[in-house]
Amino acid sequence: MGLNGLTIAVPRGALMGETLDLLDTLGVDTAEVRANDRRLLFGEVGIVTMRPSDVPTYVEAGAADLGITGKDVLAEQTEREVYELADLGYGRCVMVFATVAGDDPAAEALRRLGVMRIATKYPRIAAAYFERTGRQAEIVEVKGSVELAPLTGLADGIVDLTATGTTLKENGLVIREEITVATARLIANPVAHKLKAAEIDELLARIRDAA
Amino acid sequence: MIDPIPSGTRDVLPDEMREIRAITEKLRGVFDARGYGEVATPALEYESTLARGDAAAAEPAYRLFDEQGNVLVLRSDMTIPIARVVATRYATSAPPLRFCYFAHAYRSVRPQRGQAREMLQAGIELVGAPGPDGTIEAIELLCEVLDSVGLDSYRVGLGDASLYPALLDVLGVPAAARAPILNELVARDFVGLEREIEGLGLADEASDLLLRVPQLRGGPEVLELPSGPAADVVGRLKRLHERFSRDVAERIIFDLGLSRSLGYYTGAIFEVYDGALGVPLGGGGRYDDLLARFGRELPAAGWALNVERLHIALVGEGERGERWG
Fold it and tell me: In chain A, which segments carry CATH 3.40.190.10?
């Protein structure tokens, strides 16, 4: 039981609770992880915790055999050489295109200026989306509180991930388009996927049963 | 004053060079003993030459113009240059031809990823030796050189580039639907693969096979599972397995989902893994159509090891100072 001797990168933040719940059902003792907010490495149970966007980096390098992170992170880092093994179903969020309520200022900018300025933490997803839908967009990358950008005139609209839409609403923004749905994914290092095939497959089967 | 060098490139100083040389000298010794003659080719080739071998091989390379306006590129591997050499300089020689090389290859990198723009490759090309004999010789030589440098716990993942296309053929998957499926496979995205396969509306059994086969990897027992549609290709892997020496057979992980990014592979493909490193140390395979594109119709197989990664794996395995240096 447990992780079959494998190591797993666990995302801190919104996905952490359900990820630890899943690990519990697999027989991993996550009490220490839950009790300890500052410690990052829990070698005795094979868990290392980090920002969700760092999970593919550690797994690609083999610093962890497995990892759990959102599809939004993987879609933004498509060139990472990791196996995407399973859709874990939880952590459901929607990637949306939003602007301030009322007349759509992005459409207005596109019509009069030929290009709309879009603020986002996901520059590659946003650029690909507007390219795919045939609109010229100038992507402005910000690191946090994307909702601020259209309120201050930095951008005409935003592309961001939302679970409930509450933060958008509180900032007077409305969803104009839904781009894609993101859920938590299990990923694996390509070398571990071969060298520890039996351990990974057995764990994967138990994860599928638990889901 | 500090003059920077391009990201992904590096200077090699005597301490490191001594260790790299210790590795390459051992490899050279094995190549010599097995009759593989060392060749060197220019780092610059005409773009049209590389593109003839494989469109993807020419794409990410570094381009420049010569004095006449011809487009030159830095080679991204040694297989295509050696295919050119065989067709032009050995046009009438009787096969098989055996070559080895130690050469730098060039790839483009993503920023801030710690990827190498320039990498030292050591490899062989065995031209005019069809499978299974040629494949066995190439893989046994690969294991012999890895043993010679004292790499302890490596494994060779072995699959076949024609396996999945054959499966799609037999199950009657329309040509238009194949590109997205193969893309998910190359991207190693089994969630996406499942979505694409379900979209085909095949019978449950066929969908299950398409999804399950690329996830099969392990000992020879994985070759027992997918009977039926992929039988020819799996049979070919089985025959290889029966003929490997015991030491080599123990190193093999059969991997029915293995795919390699270069487009010229036609049959067996393989990659080298070591627990000390999260990325493959190298790989290769059969490319029975490539030489014909340069005017000599000869089957061929070859492989390349990334010498710097091999060095890291050796250090990681804790062999440093014991076996060399």
Answer: 8-91+183-210, 93-181
pLDDT at B51 (0 to 100): 86
User: B215 at the A interface (CB within 8 A)?
Assistant: yes
Whether residues B41 and B118 share a domain: the answer is: yes
Q: What pLDDT, on a 0 to 100 scale, did the predictor assign at position B50?
A: 87
Instruction: Identify which of B188, B191, B253 has the shortest CB distance to residue A87.
Output: B191
Please give the residue of chain A at the shortest CA–CA distance from B272: A191
- pLDDT, one tens digit per residue, over A30-77 is 999 999 889 999 999 999 999 999 999 999 999 999 999 999 999 999
d(CA B264, nearest CA chain A) in Å: 21
For the domain made up of A8-91+183-210, the CATH class stated in words is alpha beta
CB of B239 less than 8 A from some CB of A: no
Average pLDDT over residues B88-100: 95
The CA-atom distances, in angstroms, between B63 and each of A58, B49, B112, B271 are 33, 13, 22, 29
pTM, 2 dp? 0.90
User: How many other C-beta atoms lie within 10 A of the C-beta of residue B126?
Assistant: 26
Helix residue ranges, H only, B34-159: 47-53, 55-58, 79-89, 133-148
Give how far B321 is from chain A: nearest CA, Å. 25
ipTM above 0.95, yes or no: no
* A187: closest chain B residue by CA: B189
In this complex, which of B218, B271, B278 lies closest to A197 when CB atoms are compared?
Answer: B218
pLDDT band of residue B54 (cuts 50, 70, 90) is confident
For A162-200, write each residue's pLDDT tens digit.
999 999 999 999 999 999 999 999 999 999 999 999 999
Residues of chain B contacting residue A197, judged by C-beta atoms under 8 Å apart:
217-218, 253
Q: Give me the pLDDT at residue A46, please.
A: 94
User: May I ask the CATH architecture of the domain A93-181?
Assistant: 3-Layer(aba) Sandwich (3.40)
Nearest CA in chain A to B271: A191
The pLDDT, as a whole number, for residue B52 is: 86
Chain A closest CA to B279's CA: distance in Å?
A: 6
**B157 located within any domain:** no
Average pLDDT over residues B144-151: 97
Same domain, B25 and B138: yes
In a domain? residue B250 = yes
Number of structural domains (chain B) is 2
Per-residue confidence (pLDDT) for residue B325, from 0 to 100: 27
Residue B50's domain comprises 17-151+276-325
Segment A65-105, tens digit of pLDDT: 999 999 999 999 988 999 999 999 999 999 999 999 999 99
CB contact under 8 A, B217 and A61: no
